[in-house]
Structure formats: structure tokens, C-alpha cells
Amino acid sequence: MGDARLLHPAKPVIHFDTQHLHDLLVDMRDTMQALNGVGLAAPQIGVGLRVVIFGVQHSPRYPDVEGVPETVLINPVITPLGEAMEEDWEGCLSVPGLRGLVPRHAHIRYQGMDEYGEPIDRSVSGFHARVVQHECDHLDGILYPMRIRDMSKFGYTEELFPGKEILDE
Ligand code: NI
Predict the structure, then answer these.
(1) Of 135, 159, 165, 169, catalytic
(2) Does residue 135 carry a catalytic annotation?
(3) Residue 144: per-residue pLDDT
(4) Domain residues for 54?
């Protein structure tokens, strides 16, 4: 947070299944795994393209985390399904060590392409919907602290959740 590249709107991908795109995805997966993340957007590694990856398996290590399929999502479009909003805690690999309570649409449809240009079209809820909204915000230069309504619900992970292992987005 503070790097100008995180605040710029990212550009659409035009060419699919290219070496450039596959190399970018290798970098993104390596970064996400090294930092123990559940999602990552290309601007977080300094690349201004509309590419996000996310996914996590349900595991006893993170009992609160629902499984989300491993996904490459390019040029995403999010459509809220209904008016319902939910607040929950988020962290971000670009805002290390902090957590905040963030409102998100409870139900969304998301569309886009994978790295081969194959269409993706899913309707999801809850944690899956939250992760997608968080990652896609990165493509529009929005970091989750900008969405926190009550700044008393923003703080250091080790103060808010002592001793707990937590995944960032
Ligand atoms: Ni993030």
C-alpha cells in the first residue's frame, strides 16, 4: 500500500494463451503461495492487467474458510445479485499484518475468461463472492481499507486475532 501501481485502473487483456500471459500466471501463483494468500491480482506484482487468481481448499488449518475453486479470471465483470450486503474480516497481501471489517455483496455473478480465452460464468455467495470482489477491486485501484465503514474495525491481525493463522487476499 502506497505504491502508485496499486491505485491505477488495470488494462484489459487482449491476447490469450500467450507466453507473456502464462509467465505472468506463474509469477502470480508463486507469489500467492509464498505469501500464503487466497487470491492475488496482477497489479499487486506491479503488472497493470485485468488478471486475478484465487482459490483455496477447505482445511482444518483454516476452519472458518470455505473452499473456493482454483481460478484464473481475466477481464472480469461482477454483477451483484440482489441488494444483500455482508460484513466480514479481510486482509490483503499488499497491506500486510492488518485486518479490517469490509462490506461486500453477499451474492454475485462473475463473468470473464481463463488464460485460454474460455468463458467463465459463475453465481456465488459468501466467502467465494468476497474473495472475487476483493481481487477485482485491485483492478480498479481499490484497496480494502478504502471500503471500511467503521475504522475502529481496522487493526493489526495479531491484536485482533491473537495466535490465529489467517489467509490474506
Ligand atoms: Ni488484496
Answers:
(1) 135
(2) yes
(3) 98
(4) 4-160
Asked whether residue 90 carries a pLDDT value surpassing 90, the answer given is: yes
CATH number for the domain harbouring residue 63:
3.90.45.10
CA of residue 43 to ligand 1 center, whole Å: 10
Question: Which residues have C-beta under 5 Å from ligand 1, the single-atom ion?
Answer: 92, 169
Amino acid 156: pLDDT: 96
Rounded to an integer, what distance in angstroms lies between the CA atom of residue 89 and that of residue 161?
11
* Grid cell digits, residue 90: 479481510
Model confidence, pTM: 0.95
Residue 126 maps to a domain: yes
167 found inside a domain: no
Domain annotation covers residue 150: yes
The full DSSP string for 64-132 is TPPPEEEEEEEEEEEEE-SS-EEEEEEEETTEEEEEEEEEEESEEEEEEE-TTS-EEEEEEEHHHHHHH
How many whole angstroms from 7 Cα to the centroid of ligand 1?
12
Cell of 112: 470473464
